[in-house]
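hi!! sorry for the late reply, been swamped w classes. u asked for the two structures so here they r. pasted raw, havent cleaned anything up. first the sequence of the first protein and right below it the tokens
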Amino acid sequence: MKNTGTIGFRVIERADLDLIREEHNDESVLTMLGDPFIVTEYQQLKWWENISGSRTNTSYLLYLGNPSNIIGIWRLQNFDVTNRNTEVGVDIFKKFRGKGLAARSYEMVIKYLFESLNVNCIYARAGEYNEKSLKALQSAGFKITGRIREALFKSGKYHDNIILCITFSEYKKKQK
């Protein structure tokens, strides 16, 4: 369990899987995901078993105030130990959206990765249609560095996948 200010994170336990699956399968979430498929109980269990044993691709629950007040998930993906970079993502649960918690969660994740895991570069991706996610990432210090053109298919058309990054040196400048 890690707590930075009022937003903290903890490992995902088997007892948390129903809540995560319900949030994932919500229509408003599915429309924003790159993988918009409904998840079954069995698939959720297999996902959890896979991330539980991984140090390079894993997820944590985000909480506000105390560990039982779950507000979302953050993902650590493609953690490259040699080159000290990783991809991250934050998913705020439906009833907590619109309160600035995504940007605050990204700030907490960035601080943890730079100061505790000695990461040098953190990157994230967001569909160009996901303005709230792009705003949260930029508010936390990420800069748009590129795009994967027409990589996401939503609502009958293709959209660009925006790539954003923040380096340790940029993080340190922002702290001053």
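now the second protein. again sequence first, tokens right under
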Amino acid sequence: MPVFTIETTYHLPVYRQRSYQAATAEDACRLAVDDDGWEDGSEDVDTSGETYVTGIWEGQDAASSGATVKIPDAFCETVQRKAAMFDELLVILREPARPMGLSEYQFGSWLPRALALRRKADAIVTGR
């Protein structure tokens, strides 16, 4: 039976609470985001993200040295799957919105891609 080395990752939020003097809440947010000091940061283990696969290699203890295996979509980070799909959906949704409309040929090409993307979206939403 084959052996695979799997690298998994999860995001561990680190937060800080600081006060900023600014003219508006938006200005205060900009100051907070631009503030590079994290010496007073705290880990929030209660809200860590999902565990997802970030690497697969053929072989025992083969991280970064064995043959790379493509990560199945179902094991990639959900938020990244959704972000990647957004671009695909935007492209396909623009097609029927063209003022000239779709010809029968164009519709025949568009419909299978739209249905495939819908299945992909359904899989992401249901956690598959």
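hope this helps!! also noticed smth abt the second:
Residues 77-128 form one domain.
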